[in-house]
Each structure stands twice: as structure tokens, then as C-alpha cells.
What we know:
Elements: H1 3-6, E1 15-16, H2 18-32, H3 38-58, E2 63-64, H4 66-123, H5 134-142, E3 161-164, E4 180-184, E5 192-193, E6 210-215, E7 220-224
Parallel strand pairs: 1-2, 3-5
Antiparallel strand pairs: 3-4, 4-6, 6-7
Helix pairs in contact: 2-3, 2-4, 3-4, 4-5
Amino acid sequence: MTASDLTPPPVPSAKTSGMAITSLVVGVVGLVTCGLLFLITVPLGLTLGIIALNKIGKSQGQLQGKGMAIAGIILNGVTFLILPIAAAMLLPALAAAKQRAMEINCLNNEKQLALAIKIYAGDNTNCLPVATSWCDAIRTEAGSTRIFKCPAGRPSSQCDYAFNDKLGGMDESKIDPQTVMIFESDRGWNASGGPEALLATPRHRSHGGDVVVGFADGSVRTVPRAQLGTLRWDP
């Protein structure tokens, strides 16, 4: 028997668990992205961390990385806990941004409608369309029926705006520029009228409820509900 026969075989070095590493990396990614990849990162990270921890415990020292597995489980758990809080903080901001986007879209619609009315007047001896058929009259100038629709209006409505009936057929040059010409309404296609035809409940919620109004000079602006009584309706 030689001395080499008495030497114990070398103990293989322990390997680091790949699952533990992946769980930690996934946990970091989920936390850094504030849960934007929540449906992928959190379930994956938690699952891999738990499996890795279990395998390391049963490996009799052949696997290491227990600390990384625990850290991965903790990070993914933290992401899971903070996501509802982050969502609760983010949702109101997203809702406000959506409302503002719809209001801007509505403003642009009325600007295009006001322009179409002016083009119509230019082609018809400077006279505005007849109030009871104004939508039909400017349909060609409008180019698309899309601009008759407010994004916050009823899906079934063909038109979400109305025409000031006191301006129907009038010579544009004889109308005060600050007179209301078109405004938000829920009375449908070719709707016309005065203050009574205004929306009872504003579609846009900024400033407590704004109504988009277009004027005889072609300008368009949002008018807070509290100021609707100051609008000029007589030419």
C-alpha cells in the first residue's frame, strides 16, 4: 500500500445554484422597473428562489447560494407588496392625463368645425349655414365625420356639438367675433339652439367641469361651468 492509497479523494467544490442567481437578478429587475414586468418577474423570481432554497438545503453542501436565494425571495416579495401602492398612486394621474387628452381632442375638433364653417361662408356669399342643417351643410368642408364626435361623447351619437341658432344664415361680417358659434351638446346631428342646448353635465372634468366652445372669430376655448352664464349668444 502506497501513501497515495491513503490520501482521501478531493472534495468537489460546491456549485452556486443557478436558480438562486436567477431569482436574485429577477428580483432586482422587478424592483428597478417598479413592477412594470410584474406578471413575469414576481412569479418567476419567487418560484425560482423557493426551489433554489429547497435544493440547496438538500444538497449536503454541494450547492451554495442560500443568501442569494433568500435575497431573491425578499426582493420579489417586496415588489409584490409595493405594486398595489404604486398602482394606486399612478392610476389617478393616468386618468387625469386621459381626461386632458380627450379635452384637447375635443378642442381640435371644434377648431376644425369652426374652420369648415368659415370655408362654407366664404363659398356662400359670406353667409353662415342654416342652423337647422349646419352639419349637412359643412360636411364636405369638414372632410371627415370624425371631427363631429367628441371622444368623451356617447358612442351612439353622430354629433356632439350644436350651432348657435341665432347665427343661422347670417352674414359673417355682421357678427360680433366673441359670439358663441358652436358648442358641446348632446342633441345629435344638426343640433342647434342657445344656452339651453349646452351640456347639462360637462364631459371634461378640469376646473370642476369645462365645456368646449367655439366663437364667431374661429377661436375655441374651454369655458368653466361657472362662467357659462357670461357667454355672448346674440350676434
